[in-house]
Amino acid sequence: MAGLSSERLAEVKDRLLSRKKNLWLEVKDQLKSSIGDGYQEMLATARDEEDQATVSLMAETSLTLLGPKRQELEAIEEALLRLENGAYGLCEVCGHPIEPRRLEIMPEAPLCRNCASQREKLAKATGR
Ligand SMILES: [Zn+2]
Asked: Contact at 8 Å (CB) between 73 and 27?
């Protein structure tokens, strides 16, 4: 494990989970006000524990207004998975530990600062 204590990991998990919960509520609100009755019913019955299925539902609906929030939710989801399998805190691209300061600000960050800025440059260059 990349030098992160189990206490630290538990803390990160807490933060991710509560962030996820808040985001999820915001997304639900947004969905409710922007889409039809069919989805409203679905969302009303979706519980937080089952949200993964609903996240893929959102992916299918590809609502552009949810873009940033959906991306963040997915990033959090992935960070939680990495916590589970012990890969948390390691850059997905280069495999080096992600700067602790960076994880402090953005606990769901999948990339170290170097790789993230390179990816950003690339995204800008290709227009995504
Ligand atoms: Zn990296």
From this structure: yes
Question: Model confidence over 34-69: pLDDT tens digits?
Answer: 666 565 566 566 555 556 566 556 555 555 566 788
- Predicted TM-score (pTM) of this structure: 0.69
What is the Cα–Cα distance from 111 to 102, expressed in whole angstroms? 10
In the reported structure, the alpha carbon of residue 90 is separated from the centroid of ligand 1 by a whole-number distance in angstroms of 8
Please list the helix, strand and coil fractions of the chain in percent, rounded to the nearest 5, in that order: 75, 0, 25
**Distance between Cα 121 and ligand 1 center (Å):** 14
d(CA 40, ligand 1 centre) in Å:
40
**Distance of CA 35 from the midpoint of ligand 1 (Å):** 38
